[in-house]
Amino acid sequence: MADLVFQLYEYNVWANKQIFNRLKELPKDVYRQEVQSVFSSLSKVLAHVYLSDLGWIEVFSGKSMNHALALAEQLQEQTESKEIEEMEAMFSELAERYKSFLSHKENIHKPLVIEHPSGDLMKTSVSELVPHVVNHGTYHRGNITAMLRQIGYASVMTDYGVYLYLKTKGESLRIR
Fold first, then answer.
1. Which residues are annotated as a binding site?
2. What confidence score (pLDDT) does residue 173 get?
3. How far apart are CA 110 and CA 118, in angstroms?
4. Integer Cα distance of 115 and 130 in angstroms
5. The domain made up of 2-168 is a member of CATH 1.20.120.450
6. Structure confidence by residue, pLDDT tens digits, 60-118
């Protein structure tokens, strides 16, 4: 299970890099272009994903869900204002934090009791929640793909199957 959890997270990092690489190929104004969609711009989607991922690693590290939500609220405007290169660096730093945390096998099976803002308790573990983090990222990479198509640009393949195929072929995990 520990290896699968780590592999899923590695996939998430790879897929995010594919999105950043694609966005950097496009005209600079595309990143903040207003779009009629779930999010009003690509920059806001990426800020949301980053702040969610940041919140989960905070929870995994022992902080409360209320702390994670307050941190996201506090950093939202500042995060949304970042340029694409700054966001990419922030994602990279956060990925290193996750990898360091997940490299300690005892952390992967660490039991968590999370108090939902409603007051309800959820008993779970890091190994059960990392797939949620990955799935959340996948969902929003889909939003990005739809938004790019809506404004006339192609996206890039970020499917887990593509990641596994390239990994088993021993090829570079950078595709076009």
1. 48, 136, 140
2. 56
3. 23
4. 18
5. yes
6. 999 999 999 999 999 999 999 999 999 999 999 999 999 999 999 899 998 999 988 78
Residue with tokens 């966005």: 23
CA angle, corner 139, sides to 119 and 71, nearest 5?
A: 45
Place of tokens 């950043």: 20
What local confidence, expressed as pLDDT, does residue 170 receive? 74
Instruction: Fill in the DSSP letter of residue 103.
Output: T
- The confidence score (pLDDT) of residue 156 equals 96
Q: What is the pLDDT of residues 25-46, one digit of tens each?
A: 999 999 999 999 999 999 999 9
Residue ranges of the annotated binding site for a divalent metal cation are: 48, 136, 140
Q: How far, in Å, CA of 109 to CA of 107, rounded?
A: 6
Cα distances from 73 to residues 14, 48, 69, 86, 160, in angstroms, run 27, 10, 6, 19, 30
| Inter-helix orientation angle 65-80/42-60, to 10° | 150
DSSP, collapsed to helix, strand or coil, labels residue 113 as strand
Q: Quick check: helix, strand or coil at residue 121? A: strand
Q: With CA atoms as reference, report the closest residue to 139 among 17, 33, 16.
A: 16
